[in-house]
Design goal:
With 263 residues, the chain is an alpha/beta fold. The chain is built from eight helices and twelve strands. It has a seven-stranded parallel sheet with strand order 3-2-1-4-5-6-12, sandwiched between helices. Strands 8-9-7-10-11 form a five-stranded mixed sheet, covered by helices on one side. It is elongated and about 60 Å long.
Amino acid sequence: MDAQPLRIGIAGLNGRVGRLLAEEVPSGGAVLAGGTTRNGQTVVGIDCPVYADIAGLARHCDVVIDFTHADTVIPHATALAESGTAWVLGTTGLSPVQQQAVDAAAKRIAVVQAANFSPGVTLVTRLARQMAAVLPGSEYDAEILEMHHRQKVDAPSGTALAMGRAVAEGRGIRLEDHIESGRDGHTGPRADGAIGFAALRGGQIVGEHSVIFTSGHEQISLTHRSFDRRVYATGAVRAARWLRARVAGLYNMEDVLGLERPA
């Protein structure tokens, strides 16, 4: 007998990514089991149940895909852990307390958490970690440049910070101890070993990220450009399908792509 189709729920069904997710879920035989919306109303053009809260949605699906807001992370973590529903989390900008809630949920359910679900971004981030491990901060300055649409409210972006953390991990340091962001005025010379960030905003650019290593003799750049938000939706649905056979734990997109975790 064939296995039952995977039932996927979408938190934030009426968001820009939520609408794309609703289109992508049926591919590969998954079922759109429902969603939540900010106002609790149905979404024009999307035929599925809308639940009043995350707990109601969780009772009717196997996996919830969540691209909502940091403020919802703690209640979502609690509800999904209690229901035993797997969680694909793409919300960024989490506080330490919110991240602790995710970590606690992952002891009870399978969670894929990623700042970006694009396979290309995942590979660029991995390469940045590997390059940082062999390009010492004393010789190679690391800078991360990102540009997004004019409506984006946070900077640096979650993806840029994930790339910065990868550089820091490659060098065996903490990003928080070496980050330089928002330079303005007479800042003095660049600190040795700093990991710099620059954020640009304009138009309707989906997302551009570059990790740049520069020494006194050469420069190496890794660049990724997203042309369509659909790449995030397809990656998240891929992660949801992958989660079906996983035990409780905290996973990332490198796991979904079958890449070995760094030693």
